[in-house]
Design brief:
Helix content is 53%, strand content 0%.
Length: 321
């Protein structure tokens, strides 16, 4: 998309802040390879790394039904268990995920999202001497998991293809952003995650909540006002989005794809053998913080439900015009 000046001062291109975000798709794949070579260094960089695609399969939240209690109160953290469409299942390796989802990527954006991550994990081979060169327990855990997940398969070309498809899908989904101005900023992506359950939008929003120089997201501000946690709100928003994504796709159980993907990204949680993403979050957050995250998560689900209901109520009137 070129940059074209128009009479209203807007540009026929995506808002400026998306340029580095979309460029990061390619960067993340490169960082995935770095994490295998040097897990300690990659942990300090926003790297997309290998993860094992297991976890409970869950249905994308099309109706964003209300949870009856905060996830933490039910004893299994933020990731939930909606589980119907079999995106990521326990004991998945790359071959199992590919057999189940590769044929769906042209029409199912959730399948594309999973294949993008799974192929990114295996885009570089595991170094044969990783047992000697891994510098930390987290690095050894990650490399051992990647070895069992990829089984010697290298998916460099596939990962580039899925990245290109992901970018194309994003552009098509947000064609209406072409005429937005820079003043709209990152509010566009925050609004997008309240309008739909696109996993790609949720992942991008989670990465955008605390980018220096960009506006902050006010969602959940009322949940931290008057506490000592105000500065941590962006991290709570990020985890709330990631937890919903876990409930939609699975892959966040012990030694699962999304667990291993996120455990090496900033903030580095550290990869632990046998630990789920909920376990890692429980180590990071105090109980009152977990309650705040659960409330933010519920606000997202409730707003999706409200907007879905509002859209359904106006659709018949629009069709009759």
């Amino acid at each position: 998309m070129g940059t074209v000046n128009t009479s209203n001062g807007k540009r026929n291109t995506l808002p400026w802040f998306l340029a580095p975000c979309l460029l990061s798709l390619a960067v993340l794949f490169r960082l995935a390879g770095q994490a295998i070579a040097d897990p300690a260094r990659s942990a300090s960089t926003p790297a997309v790394d290998s993860h094992h695609g297991s976890g409970e399969a869950t249905r994308p939240i099309a109706s964003a039904r209300r949870q009856t209690a905060p996830p933490a109160a039910r004893g299994h953290g933020f990731s939930g268990h909606l589980n119907p469409d079999g995106y990521l299942l326990p004991s998945d390796d790359f071959s199992a995920i590919e057999r189940r989802l590769a044929d769906r990527v042209t029409y199912d954006e959730r399948a594309l999202f999973v294949m993008y991550h799974a192929a990114g994990v295996c885009s570089t081979p595991v170094k044969p001497d990783w047992r000697k060169t891994a510098r930390s327990e987290s690095g050894r855990t990650f490399s051992a998991w990647k070895e069992s997940f990829c089984h010697g398969i290298t998916t460099h070309d596939e990962s580039l293809a899925y990245a290109a498809m992901t970018l194309e899908s994003f552009q098509k989904r947000h064609e209406d952003w072409n005429d937005k101005s820079d003043e709209d900023g990152n509010h566009l992506i925050f609004e997008a995650v309240l309008d739909s359950d696109s996993p790609e939008d949720s992942a991008l929003a989670a990465d955008m909540v605390d980018v220096p120089g960009l506006d902050k997201w006010a969602l959940g501000l009322q949940d931290v006002e008057g506490t000592t946690h105000v500065a941590r709100l962006p991290r709570y928003q990020q985890v709330a989005l990631q937890g919903i994504q876990c409930s939609e796709l699975g892959g966040c159980g012990p030694n699962d794809l999304m667990t291993l993907w996120l455990c090496v990204r900033t903030p580095a949680l550290g990869c632990q053998a046998g630990a789920s993403l909920d376990d890692l979050w429980a180590n990071e957050f105090a109980p009152d913080e977990i309650a705040i995250i659960a409330r933010i998560q519920q606000r997202i689900l409730d707003e999706r439900s409200r907007r879905l209901a509002a859209g359904a109520s106006t659709a018949p009137r629009d069709a009759a015009r």
